[in-house]
Fold each of these.
Amino acid sequence: MSVTEDRIFIKKAIRLAAYGAGHVSPNPLVGAIIVKNGRIIGSGYHRKYGGPHAEVNALKSATEPVAGATLYCNLEPCSHTNKQTPPCVPSIIRAGVRRVVVANIDPNPGVNGKGIAALRNAGVQVENGVEEENGRELNRFFFKFVTEKQPYVTIKYAQTIDGFIARSRDRQDWISGNLAQKRVHQLRARYDAVLIGGQTLRADNPQLTVRRTRGRDPLRIILSSSLALDPSHAIFHHHEPGNTWIITTETAGREAMNRLAGLGCRIIPLKTDNTNRVAIGDLLHVLADQKIISLLVEGGQEVISAFLHAGMVDELKIIQAPRLWGSGFRAFPDTFEPSAGMFTLHQTERMESDILLTYRPV
Amino acid sequence: MSVTEDRIFIKKAIRLAAYGAGHVSPNPLVGAIIVKNGRIIGSGYHRKYGGPHAEVNALKSATEPVAGATLYCNLEPCSHTNKQTPPCVPSIIRAGVRRVVVANIDPNPGVNGKGIAALRNAGVQVENGVEEENGRELNRFFFKFVTEKQPYVTIKYAQTIDGFIARSRDRQDWISGNLAQKRVHQLRARYDAVLIGGQTLRADNPQLTVRRTRGRDPLRIILSSSLALDPSHAIFHHHEPGNTWIITTETAGREAMNRLAGLGCRIIPLKTDNTNRVAIGDLLHVLADQKIISLLVEGGQEVISAFLHAGMVDELKIIQAPRLWGSGFRAFPDTFEPSAGMFTLHQTERMESDILLTYRPV
């Protein structure tokens, strides 16, 4: 099999894996393709958390005997047994697969090369690192979580060309067009959780659900030191119990906590830092403990700045609408520290006259 | 000849025409391709103002007899005689061209369909409107100038993600990267004139010349009501005499006018509007009288707003650099009128981590 063919089939496995997005967390996205004599004879992907792995789905789907075939899989097959499903390596060996090609080693300490070693010990030829960057990009939430014990954090907001996110602090204004709004719902469906600050809740009264595309609602998190939240807000009335969390400070009023808990919210009081705010690091630590591997921060000004100042942002997604306002409310306060605002442009995506710009920290 | 083939060859003519950019103003950009039996047997474009037209260059270049061939030309061939070069239509007829395909009718009142009529009268088959939009886009400076008697106006500036063009009003800060800066020089080489305000001259001390790419320097125009311009500025020392114009008010000091004229600048005093400023409409009228068909406005805040408020902007080119500053000096003042800031996104172009966004007014 040539290097080019290996790359083509691994790319196919990666594309297949992506179908699991929004359904497999905290597991990685995995796709598998079985190739024999240059033809694909089986394929599968990890469809949902707790369900069978991609490799097993691919083996099951095979239309002819797998013996002697090559298995393409973006992530190293698992060999560990301390989990819901049986390990994949024995099944691969049993099926008589002759060669396995993977993009990435599974950084999970329980695997981390042991799967590849077990395959090689059984006489299976293994190729590692094919389309490595693409595989890492696909599973960036998972890699961040496993290696740093923190969720992957993406900040998202819509702005005018001149950087305004609303006419004033207390107003909600539709800035972007239809396609861009739909795109935001698609994003939500892929992240484990969505987070906003209390001020954004008061100004926008959002539901933070997935409505304009198919997909599951993310966990909704409100960050509010004061707990001055009006129980009539939409978010408290359009949710399944337990699907809205409120992160607050230990010093917040007991009464407010009880009232919000009574609405079905989970209240998580955290220690405050020296500015009497929740420290972003502590917040992310709590989310990681709850196996939240990806977080979409949707505003507002104070929350976005806090994440950037803490150096805990992996991606900045800005939807820029084709308008100049001259004045209004900006995404960042005057006190924002420019040294926290150095990026590279990772990707651009046009949506009618809006553009989605994806930046990553330098 | 099929419709598809007609479009392919007209597109080639358009690409060829574009080589004349920066050299033929106030003439249009024109390219011509001669096709016989499906093969290109000649091609040419209008290379410089005063030089032979594209059609003539194409006929001269033909590698075999043109009789019976099709001539593709993005603009209607000229039939008028009140100009430097002889009209093209007689040459085309004489050469025995059987068919002529054009993208656009020449809106110039001296032509405006007369070229096509003359060809048809001589028995030449003519097809008009093939790739019409592309042809109009290519010659947007020329079409604006001929139909509205005003130059095509493009505003260009570089900003941070959050809309700042400098750290403060009096500072110049490099915002964009190498490729973007080179791109600005390419733009300058294509516009007849570049304009800045006195404040930008004082803060940036620019040369406004073409240095980082090949091309001729544009005419440089400074808009200054006060004429409070320091003679030591670079712009007064790196120019050919007459290549720097200063547009000012009739009420500006006579002494300052004489001093700047002594530096080789051309001083153009205009009447003031009710805010004691030069009216943008008057300014553009003067430029059009001088056969300036395209103007690149490079700042700053006051000048850019004045053009947008006057509704006299055809294009907004923003180079957005991957930085957040939180505070600084913005491209627009608080007094900017949002109704003057509605656009569609026309084009995007990535340059490393910068992005050039081209907007056009709605």
Note: The two ends of chain B are 38 Å apart (CA to CA).
Amino acid sequence: MATVPLPANPEADARVRAVFDDIRATRKTDFINNLWRALAFDPPLLERTWADVKALMATPTLLDPLTKEMVYIAVSIANACSYCVHSHTAAARAKGMSDAMHAELLAIVALAARTNHLANGLQVPLDGAFDAAAR
Amino acid sequence: MATVPLPANPEADARVRAVFDDIRATRKTDFINNLWRALAFDPPLLERTWADVKALMATPTLLDPLTKEMVYIAVSIANACSYCVHSHTAAARAKGMSDAMHAELLAIVALAARTNHLANGLQVPLDGAFDAAAR
Amino acid sequence: MATVPLPANPEADARVRAVFDDIRATRKTDFINNLWRALAFDPPLLERTWADVKALMATPTLLDPLTKEMVYIAVSIANACSYCVHSHTAAARAKGMSDAMHAELLAIVALAARTNHLANGLQVPLDGAFDAAAR
Amino acid sequence: MATVPLPANPEADARVRAVFDDIRATRKTDFINNLWRALAFDPPLLERTWADVKALMATPTLLDPLTKEMVYIAVSIANACSYCVHSHTAAARAKGMSDAMHAELLAIVALAARTNHLANGLQVPLDGAFDAAAR
Amino acid sequence: MATVPLPANPEADARVRAVFDDIRATRKTDFINNLWRALAFDPPLLERTWADVKALMATPTLLDPLTKEMVYIAVSIANACSYCVHSHTAAARAKGMSDAMHAELLAIVALAARTNHLANGLQVPLDGAFDAAAR
Amino acid sequence: MATVPLPANPEADARVRAVFDDIRATRKTDFINNLWRALAFDPPLLERTWADVKALMATPTLLDPLTKEMVYIAVSIANACSYCVHSHTAAARAKGMSDAMHAELLAIVALAARTNHLANGLQVPLDGAFDAAAR
């Protein structure tokens, strides 16, 4: 169950309808996943969120689409967002992530978490060599 | 300041010396950053940590080296590990991450954090379409 | 499922009964939500937790009740506590949070998460102007 | 030290200059804090971030300005963003947060963190009464 | 539902079979919990994860087995890993954790979270007395 | 720098003085660390925080004092509270934590973080065997 009612007919609202139409056209699918249905309870929030997701994740940019999905999954795991891990793993799979790539991604995320906790436990001081100003 | 004393002469210990030699040979540099110096307070922990970092991050695997560093940075940001953000940003830079790639990485990490918090705030229910068993 | 059995008849214990009576009287409702039922497995932990929640959240203080619930929701989202997001969203609704206020709260939480990740990714140094000692 | 060089003369870039001018005009101050100076390394990221911060935090909306800052602080504490805690505490102070309000905010954030950890440790099941669909 | 299909017959793979046999022999039980079944989608990841869990958690070391499980639970709560909280609470119970010990563990975790948020909200500066180099 | 001014003479306030006296008497030391000095900006918050820390961490309870400090460190690492990691590592050292115990604690915390991220990445479903109601 969600903290807002998932509307039965969200596209009765013209602003929601426009966003959903754009999601379908951009992603070339009729499937609108529940994040967008939940956000439909507030059309301005829905519009702004989709605009930014579209600009970065559904538009060609410098990084390739699969790399972007893997970074997204990594953050979602660390932030313990169950919904986001599921939705972006499905997206990465659709963009070509194989079992072996998935396993390696998880291994790197887990290794990073491990050394994050070691470094935070040791409170390791910064090395001068990391200073961006000295590059 | 760290929670363990950074040893003045860590390589007096033969096990530490062997790990540091391997770090230098693997990375083709004389620079040993402070995480390894701090871990030298316990040679077995140092050995195990380096073995796993080497196997995944300093050995050719399925994902390319820069993608792996960017995933590592993403997790480190979400886990608020200041040291790790610095060390892996420096590593990513050394492997070719440009200003524009860095900016895009940060933009994706920030977008993921934003939708992570939206989805956790809305408690969005999972879509059946995400079910891996149904692929 | 919980990590402790939810007791079938928690109020058989006199200390639990006293806390539950106070929850009902304070909140003017017969409804005791599951957090309290689960905490009933250890009456002292139940008593201390309720005493502190009551003092801050069920007693008039400096901040108004709805602001307090919104701050509570914000923390619960960032800490990925699904139960707490649900329970405090329900409480905020009961205290007058409208759809538009809920949407704005989520937008601010998401914006904060976004700039938190940007600032942690950039490792932005503190400005001297923020120094409380200089106010 | 930051992970990007803080530019000596960021306003040599016309896009950066335009954003900084807008920050000064909007906030009615000459002070540009380091987050914006750091973001100046990528003008598009700077523009998008400021546009969203301005729309939500520097424009009248439904919630009052001080409530918004307190929610922002709460998220920043939970996400362990040191820079953001400092900058938004300074902003909340400038908008009228007294010592007593600050103390109460911290007390609520700490109480929420405490029950977040209790609920996640107990894995408390959701109550049907929280269902938004049943409101 | 998981992000990988839980294989119907994971032990058809000889490497998976060897790990599962070792889990059964080490733990003296036929029960293989779902984490290992899910990891079976990538035998090398399964092997490395089990090797490290076995070395630290299923082998006598300096700290006693129950203390290790309680530390594990504490981290899992703070990282909001629902599965891990359940599995390690069950393990701690099997190793002798009573209701009263469980309640005290949760009380300490909650107290730590509370002062973590207070200290991060106050941005308390380090005391020189904590310096490990001065011990 | 902190988000509140550290008062030059906090014990001029009688309530602060009483708490500081109790800290000194309880801990048998003249040293008052900065968390308490910072909390002195709001005597009620100082009183409540110290009362709860004293009851759980400075009073004999079921768990031994060193185990309690190690659990506290584990949570503080996962929550990225730099101050708390330092203060509780110093406390654990004072209560007898050796280098080897410290290293093992960090290894367990890091292992837990690693499997937390694996389980959250795989979204492993709960095993029925973990059900507390079935014990």
Note: The mean pLDDT of chain F is 97.
Amino acid sequence: MARLGREVRPVSYPRGEIRASDFRVVEVEVRPLRRGEVLVRNTWTSVDAALRLRLRERAPAGYFPAFPLDEPMDGIMTVGEVVESRADGFTSGDTVWHASGWRDYAVVEAERPALGGVGTLTKLDVRSAPPQAHLGPLGASGLTAYAGLFHVAGLREGDVVWVSAAAGAVGSLVVQLAKLGGHRVIGSAGSDDKVRHLVADLGVDAAFNHHDGPLPDLLREAAPDGIDVYFDNVGGDHLEAALGALRRAGRVVICGMVSEYGAQTPPPGPGNLMLAVTKGLTIRGFRGSDHTFLLPEMRRRMGSWLREGRLRHRETVVEGLAQAPAALAALLRGDNTGKTLVRIEDVPHRGNADH
Amino acid sequence: MARLGREVRPVSYPRGEIRASDFRVVEVEVRPLRRGEVLVRNTWTSVDAALRLRLRERAPAGYFPAFPLDEPMDGIMTVGEVVESRADGFTSGDTVWHASGWRDYAVVEAERPALGGVGTLTKLDVRSAPPQAHLGPLGASGLTAYAGLFHVAGLREGDVVWVSAAAGAVGSLVVQLAKLGGHRVIGSAGSDDKVRHLVADLGVDAAFNHHDGPLPDLLREAAPDGIDVYFDNVGGDHLEAALGALRRAGRVVICGMVSEYGAQTPPPGPGNLMLAVTKGLTIRGFRGSDHTFLLPEMRRRMGSWLREGRLRHRETVVEGLAQAPAALAALLRGDNTGKTLVRIEDVPHRGNADH
């Protein structure tokens, strides 16, 4: 008796904001396992701003390819439980992560590299952290924050660090990692609630709501003597303000440019790049998936900090697989705090005996 | 009897293109030397695109300050002969460089740092190279090319290198240094004559005139498999094209952005900076004067290459101090090849006995 599963598929590439009509949920028959594969019932699936880059005709050069229309979305981090295994090293009941998200049942080839290695099927240790933490601080978000701050930024003692989208999945980790490193940290976000969260829960030294005034003024107030490192999740006016505020030999780490993801035509870049020359600045873009060699180290260290309570993380949980597109739209609007997750409901086994 | 000298002074900040009326030549009395000073008769003075950054109300943050109006321009590399010395280590007849350019007689304080150290009064070895070479390949242009390519770009074996404004003072050295390092080198310039010079005299592997078509197409033709390093002297559309052509982990070294120096309002930056994230690119701005520690090494190595004929350099020489502004205007228009220099004529001693 074949098992039925559900998949969220894009049916059109959104123009600007994401709409429910850009997706549909389809019921599909789960095919029998081949040798080397496992069947996973997904319990949590990730919602990431960068998915927007793949929800268009062509993804940017060098990035993962665009999601084909009307097919399951491959390359989204997901946590689940193994239901059946024909692969060595995996047995029924194992908690795993993999990259076949936005569906409730996934057939996953055990050895197949996914998402540059981050998303390859991996058994998770869930004794000390709940499974969904492996989609946030112990997963791709954690890797991105850890690699960006400790391996890309060229952090030096005493650096003043500004993080934008600081209440987001990655930003909220970056600000805390920078604080653990003894830095003065400025966080910015798009709502007063987030600003309160940054100060009260995440311990930043100064925070501002970027809607509250011209960015250069807000930044000058938060960091009167300038900044040394800017961790960019936003792009656009934020990047331009950072170039203005950076001190000599300052560094920009570009993790993402969420302000531009929905644009029909790319907005122009910062008009003050010449400051990179006059101030000797370094601007580096990076992807967490280029740093998979750091995964074991990151999980060990972040795991300790989480257990010791030195690292906090918040989740925005959306209930039900069908809500994944709405969750992404909310994330891109700036509505969410911390890691955005979809909890996938357990639909009683549906079979189709006659199929 | 006081000696009279001439100075070229800015009298208004140019709007867009530089005009003769933005400057005037004034005759001034050369003041008597104090202890620790030397009097230099300047023989050659430098003309550099970056001077344009200081010919405005405010220079960019982090750069040398704007030239005050109706004062001699301090901070322009110049070569001359010591006429009189009250400083230890300098005697009449010495050939020196210093930073009090665009005038025929300069009183220079021997120990006073100028131009971040590059322009501090220095005795030159003119046995193996003519004095004016110390304003080009053995001076600030040489230091900028050498530091940018060998210390900022993070060159790796096999890198394909694109250099814009490749027939200019810095670019023409960068292409040759990259060739000496065994790299495939693409040079671009703004005229067919310059393109011929790049191929025939400087040995680049491919060259194009950027007026000949859309830059991405020209670049694709010259480097079908992409580039690894872009040495930017131009900014604007050149930088944007480079970001498109760079391969994974590529690097941009921004030396200058001559396309933007005359703009009344800064033009927008590249609209494709997101490629820095997806391709893991590094963009670094720098100034030669931040690398004065490399001066001795650079002069030794570049000096050898020049003597061995492995490094060639061309000069655009303009005759007469009063022509310096016109020389700068021509340089900024893209008219000049190699290092632009003004040869300062020897005006017979003029004294004013009654003064």
Note: Chain A is about 20% helix and 25% strand.
Amino acid sequence: MVEAAQTAAFGDTVMFVSKDRNTYIRVLEPGGQFQTHYGVVRYDDVAGQPYGARLQTHLGKDLWLLTPSTDDLVRHLRRESQIIYPKDLGYILIKLGVRPGATVVEAGTGSGALTLALAMTVGETGHVYSYDRRADMQHIAQANLAAAGLAGQVTWIQRDILDGFDAHNADALFLDLPNPWDYLEQARAALRGGGFFGSIVPTINQVEALTEALYRGPWFMVEIEELLLRGYKTIPQRIRPDEQMVGHTGYLLFARALVEPTSPVASREGKENIVPD
Amino acid sequence: MVEAAQTAAFGDTVMFVSKDRNTYIRVLEPGGQFQTHYGVVRYDDVAGQPYGARLQTHLGKDLWLLTPSTDDLVRHLRRESQIIYPKDLGYILIKLGVRPGATVVEAGTGSGALTLALAMTVGETGHVYSYDRRADMQHIAQANLAAAGLAGQVTWIQRDILDGFDAHNADALFLDLPNPWDYLEQARAALRGGGFFGSIVPTINQVEALTEALYRGPWFMVEIEELLLRGYKTIPQRIRPDEQMVGHTGYLLFARALVEPTSPVASREGKENIVPD
Amino acid sequence: MVEAAQTAAFGDTVMFVSKDRNTYIRVLEPGGQFQTHYGVVRYDDVAGQPYGARLQTHLGKDLWLLTPSTDDLVRHLRRESQIIYPKDLGYILIKLGVRPGATVVEAGTGSGALTLALAMTVGETGHVYSYDRRADMQHIAQANLAAAGLAGQVTWIQRDILDGFDAHNADALFLDLPNPWDYLEQARAALRGGGFFGSIVPTINQVEALTEALYRGPWFMVEIEELLLRGYKTIPQRIRPDEQMVGHTGYLLFARALVEPTSPVASREGKENIVPD
Amino acid sequence: MVEAAQTAAFGDTVMFVSKDRNTYIRVLEPGGQFQTHYGVVRYDDVAGQPYGARLQTHLGKDLWLLTPSTDDLVRHLRRESQIIYPKDLGYILIKLGVRPGATVVEAGTGSGALTLALAMTVGETGHVYSYDRRADMQHIAQANLAAAGLAGQVTWIQRDILDGFDAHNADALFLDLPNPWDYLEQARAALRGGGFFGSIVPTINQVEALTEALYRGPWFMVEIEELLLRGYKTIPQRIRPDEQMVGHTGYLLFARALVEPTSPVASREGKENIVPD
């Protein structure tokens, strides 16, 4: 395992951190170097150093050699679009039951933040199928996954998913699209019975439209949730929440695929109406 | 993969869900049965059914046959103590870079919620070492992990961790204890260089004590964070946040293990003082 | 001023507090008594006591004699319906510019929580007009305001406000109704130019409907906001947020009444579309 | 009442608002003018206009003529220091029972945000005593209150409050200082029995220190709370929470002044220990 390595080796994805906690993720290549206003560090000098070590640039500045967390990897993705934040990624994994060996479908690919988290978690025994209409977006995501050493776990498909997915027994499927309600039939066809559906949408108007559509179809256990992450300043004698926080990334919706075509709570009148509460 | 199965088989961990969304997790055993006030379902009739199917009890009540998510598994753990909530579990995995193949240490075991999430994610190529002083607690966690089919990924150790951990090159280590600051030396010894440290504490007094201790030692990139999960009622024409929410589970603290014995921001006076901001 | 009194007098609205912080609000009347499981305190013995004093019941239990805050008064209202919470009341006062001398209209009355906060703030030089269709609800609110000594500041009107308000130059108007969008014309007619409009609704569906209606009419500066109040346990050595908190009371919407009949951002297409951001 | 005026008059504090919702607060003076990049509006043309009217600058740009809310006034204060935010101001008023006629003490003055909210609420029959050591800060606050027409309700005192307050029967007292625990004796001496104490502090270290001090002294009903305000984008077809929000302003602490010198929960051991929960 890369993670278990004690010392940095060529080919490793490493993270350099300055004293003021700026972070830089690079792949160590023979003859290469890391160059910033802190100065230069030659990769030939980095290889063989223990992780956690303090390095010095040619200007005498300190840099620490670390391995990136999944959070670090996601925050450093090259991006052309809004990404799904780490706070949401972890929860999505837990809610969709993603684990080594699972088959997961996502659309659209975007910059590949969720793709990365999925690919890392399903591991070599699982697989991720990532759909996007736009070739340019997928190329960015492909580069991102390759840089993280996870390209092998992903199949990239450029297609309008109105035409359906190739998969038919996926364990989980996630839609990060402006109008997920338009693709629920395709999503159901791609999932195994009982499969996990998830989606993220930024506006309450979309929450309404998707919730309505889920209650009309072969879906059960609809959930709407959102996560707020609060960071703190860590000076020991003056600990306090950050003045500014991310107030909203998106609403998360989840449901399970049923065999029968209708929702157990299809009728909105009468007693069943109160079921989803 | 268990997850990819289309139909329920003996030995599967399944979830029965009633129309009003009560959930029950069981392992299907030949000759067994599921019995509640909804009526009885015989496991011999369940085996072979597709996941996502509607079953009927002998009283004619509907039950849906699903596979549990990680979230479901955690919520149904038999517990003798407060568990780490799914919202925090997912984020911990992301922050500690837990992935298939990783070696992770935790103390204390508690009821095994984090153990379960870790074991599921490290997979068969990784391993979890779980420490607790109390045999009774570990027995509960062991039973919980066995029921989830994850016992093979965990080694259980009953010991006061003041005496140290056995591991020496762990990728990540998590402390869920009242006084994590007392075990930082042992934690450092168990982690590889650059390894990921995490902890959860409920009070601000503990946040202060742990933050101070981390800044004194060979740790870097101290972070304090907390997650708030907001659930919504899902009746399509009356969508609204739940009136009651969990207002606090715990503060999450993270740091990275360094090779040198002191923190880059050890001095609290002068310019370095403002670094952690 | 009642508030400035040093000692309790007959006619005062007082608050008794037990050691475990149970609170009881009563009006001191000659010959009366306060009776709970803590024992009996005779009002004749309370009159003349300084506020902040410790009393003893006939069972020897301690009770503290305090004056209620606005928060205390609201929390102790007799209620038949959901009230607007103190966290929202204070903000509404600030957003509607409510001050001594102001004329404020509200509908519906409900149990009178907002009525109380408004009546207390406009004082003897201002006035509150409170509308409700239901006589039974208004009787509860009237009793609540009378108990707080604020009945003189309020005029009660039982009417369907589809028929309009009597007021024509109100400084502020607040709607706490299921369908506030149906009464915007009446609301505009009751307000002075530039007058402050506010409303509280629990669901996102209502937020959408009201926002749309406000953008169609003579309103400007539409705002949608919500407040989350987090309480903490106060044991000095174990300070922590409460495990349970109120996750939602309602969305607050605000706007200002214009003279011209249309909103400055009536058009949704083109450049103006992005104005409300 | 100024608020009830239908048309703008010289001497009025008015608010000009542009189509893109920039806001400007000015006092109308004969011969004066409002000049921005939107163009010029002469006050002689504004006087006599109805509030809520649309004005036009000499460049033909629209401006709306409104009256400022308390929220608007606070947001436009000239400031040299962090102010207490409107979300907190409203709640402080409710928790301290501030109403027309009340006598309230505050220290330090800062830029006068709380001074303004207090002065507006106590009205002409109440009074605010505002203490600050720094003359320069008080001069800013004085100018701010004068601009809002509230100078008459406030007495300004430049003093180190370690030397005590002049007041002895204040209804409420608020400390906005780095070390409020150092002034609790002085605060108690300034308050009437049962009087309301409040304070705001940004760090958890200060929360701990102040809570400890309150439990040692003649205080009861200690509360620690914080308010989170979430704003929404209001485009009707794309309503969503703002991406960025203020994550922290300060922790609010409240207590009541007792006659006896000790707290009812002075002992931290034994049964009383759990009382404040």
Note: The CA atoms of residues 77 and 144 of chain B lie 6 Å apart.
